[in-house]
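User: Please run a holo structure prediction.
Assistant: Happy to. Please share the sequence and the ligand.
User: Here you go; the ligand is flavin-adenine dinucleotide.
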Amino acid sequence: MATESRLREVRVKLLNYTPRPDYTVAVAMRQSRFKGSVMSLDLKEDEIEHLVHLAIKLGHFSVFEHISFTFAVEGISRSCSHQFVRHRFFAFTQQSQRFIKESDFPYIVPESIKNKKESYKLYTETMEYLKDVYKKLSDEVAIEDARFILPNATETKLVATANGRELMHFFHERISKYAQWEIRKVAEIMLEEVKKVAPATFNEKMKDFYL
Ligand SMILES: Cc1cc2nc3c(=O)[nH]c(=O)nc-3n(C[C@H](O)[C@H](O)[C@H](O)COP(=O)(O)OP(=O)(O)OC[C@H]3O[C@@H](n4cnc5c(N)ncnc54)[C@H](O)[C@@H]3O)c2cc1C
């Protein structure tokens, strides 16, 4: 039945990033302490790691503003995206509820609700009811007004871009034990993705130094 096909899970993909992010940070760091030119600097892996970690330890965080990462994020609730877009140094583009009709609106179910039979039943029945109300309203009025009936649970998709410095801050806040589970899940997957391409910058050993 429709209910199952409307349930969504978090998905994150790193779409694009500054080529050689660790090297870019290391060169910027080197330039700040180097009289000569960095134009044809050839740094070895261990020098790159040393310079990147030195920048983190000294709190020289502006060097991480030279690297940028773009993610596609799907399967999150509007309540999660609302927390996400509070981060002002990200650039966001979010799926529009003004221009896209949520004809079968997919939604997120928290684990706590999934695991309680009665709560789950109430939750999914309410979603079915809201779907019917939304459909009826959107046949009668503009979808930008019909959407007022949509709940926080509604799935959204977005593209998010941030520089390395903002990402460190985001991970520090949103992977914390105080963060809400859904945005924490998003942040954890994002961190796993950037670790693969910038292992010196997003390094376990360094995380305590993040702002
Ligand atoms: C556990 C948790 C609970 C929360 N609860 C609530 C809540 O109940 N209500 C609520 O409204 N929000 C809440 N928030 C959101 C929070 O207040 C921030 O809006 C959000 O986390 C973005 O963080 P930020 O402002 O540090 O980051 P960003 O916007 O990503 O900015 C990064 C950093 O840049 C600097 N900066 C950015 N803009 C300015 C500025 N204008 N002036 C000075 N410095 C600036 C700051 O150092 C900031 O930390 C919560 C966040 C967390 C993690």
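The chain is about 45% helix and 15% strand.
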